[in-house]
TrEMBL record:
Its main location: membrane. The keyword Membrane applies. The chain crosses the membrane at residues 9-27, 39-56, 72-93, 99-120, 127-144, 150-167, 179-197, 217-236, 243-263, 275-293. GO terms for cellular component: plasma membrane. The keyword Magnesium does not apply. It is a multi-pass membrane protein. This is EamA family transporter RarD. It is found in: Cell membrane. PANTHER family: ACYL-MALONYL CONDENSING ENZYME-RELATED, SOLUTE CARRIER FAMILY 35 MEMBER G2-RELATED. Keywords: Cell membrane, Membrane, Transmembrane, Transmembrane helix, Transport. SUPFAM superfamilies: Multidrug resistance efflux transporter EmrE (SSF103481).
C-alpha cells in the first residue's frame, strides 16, 4: 500500500466522521416530520440504496451468502433492531433539543466498549484504562446529581451502540454486507408502518402536506446514513486502528459544538464539569492506547 493510498483512506475516514458529526443539521431540516417517520424512511431508503450498491458491486449472491448461515442471520436480526432503536432515539433527541446529551453518548461509547470487553470478553484493563473508566463514571454521576437529571439519552445511545458493536464483532460478515442484511430485517415493518401512517392521515410523503423538498430529504436521509458507513468500512482496513480511534471523536465534538452554538442548548458550569470528567477519561484512554500501539510497533521491529 502506498502512502498516497493511506492518505486518501485517512481523508475518507475524516469525511465519514465529519458527516456523522454534522448530521444534526440535516435532521433539523426535517423537524416538522415526526421523528418516528424520519427513522422509518431512513430504514427503507437505506435498505434500498445499500442493497442496490451491494448488488451492483458484488452481484446477487451477497444475500445468499448470509442466508445460508442461520446463526449469522439471527445475530444480524438482533443487531438490526438495536441500530434501529439507536437511530430512533438519536433522531428524536436531535429534534427535541437534546443534541448536547446525544453527543455525550458518543463520547462515552468507547469507554463503554472497554467495560463490555471486561464483562463479556474476559479482557483485562490496564491501570490507565481503569482510571479512564472511573473518570467517565464520575462524570456521569456528576451530571446526574449536580446537573439535575440522569443522562439517560446519552447512556441509552452509548449502550445500544456498544451492544450493537459487540454483536457485530462476533458476526462474521463484512461491514457493508452486514448493514444490508440488517436493514432488510427492518425494511418490511418500516414499509408497513409508513403505509399505515399515510392511510390514517398521519403521513405526508408524496403529498402537499410536507412538500416535495421534504420528500427528497427523507429519501436522501437513507444515503446520508449509508455513505459514511461505507467510507468507514473502506478506511478502517487501510488506516491504523489507533488513528481511527482518535478520529472517531470528530463526530461527537462537532455535535456538541452544534448543540451549544447552533441549537443554543444550555452548557453551564455544572454540565461542563461533568463533560470535563468524561473528556479527561477519554484523554487517558486515548494516550494509553497510543502508547501501547507504539510499544507493539517497536517490539515488532526488534
Amino acid at each position: 500500500m502506498t502512502p498516497v493510498h493511506d492518505r486518501r483512506a485517512l481523508w475518507i475516514a475524516v469525511a465519514a466522521f465529519v458527516i456523522w458529526g454534522l448530521m444534526p443539521l440535516y435532521w433539523h431540516l426535517l423537524r416538522h416530520v415526526p421523528s418516528l417517520q424520519i427513522v422509518l424512511h431512513r430504514a427503507v431508503w437505506c435498505a434500498i440504496l445499500v442493497a442496490a450498491w451491494l448488488t451492483v458491486s458484488r452481484g446477487r449472491g451477497w444475500l445468499r451468502e448470509v442466508v445460508a448461515q442461520p446463526r449469522l442471520v439471527a445475530m444480524l436480526a438482533l443487531s438490526g433492531l438495536l441500530i434501529a432503536a439507536n437511530w430512533s432515539l438519536y433522531v428524536w433527541a436531535v429534534n427535541s433539543g437534546h443534541v448536547v446529551e446525544a453527543s455525550l453518548g458518543y463520547f462515552i461509547n468507547p469507554l463503554l466498549n472497554v467495560v463490555i470487553g471486561v464483562l463479556f470478553l474476559r479482557e483485562r484493563l490496564s491501570l490507565p484504562q481503569w482510571i479512564a473508566v472511573a473518570l467517565a463514571a464520575g462524570g456521569v454521576l456528576w451530571l446526574t446529581f449536580n446537573y439535575g437529571s440522569f443522562p439517560w439519552i446519552a447512556l441509552c445511545l452509548a449502550g445500544s451502540f456498544a451492544i450493537y458493536g459487540l454483536i457485530r464483532k462476533f458476526a462474521a460478515v463484512e461491514a457493508v454486507q452486514g448493514l444490508g442484511v440488517e436493514n432488510l430485517f427492518v425494511f418490511g415493518p418500516a414499509v408497513l408502518a409508513l403505509a399505515w401512517f399515510e392511510w390514517s392521515g398521519g403521513g405526508g410523503f408524496f403529498s402537499l402536506r410536507w412538500g416535495g423538498w421534504t420528500d427528497v430529504l427523507l429519501v436522501l436521509g437513507g444515503a446520508l446514513t449509508a455513505i459514511p458507513l461505507i467510507c468507514f468500512a473502506y478506511a478502517v482496513r487501510r488506516v491504523p486502528l489507533t488513528v481511527v480511534g482518535l478520529l472517531q471523536y470528530i463526530g461527537p465534538t462537532l455535535q456538541l459544538l452544534l448543540g451549544v452554538f447552533f441549537f443554543g442548548e444550555a452548557f453551564g458550569i455544572d454540565r461542563a464539569t461533568g463533560f470535563a470528567f468524561i473528556w479527561a477519561g477519554l484523554a487517558v484512554f486515548a494516550i494509553d492506547g497510543y502508547l501501547q500501539a507504539r510499544r507493539r510497533i517497536v517490539a515488532q521491529q526488534l
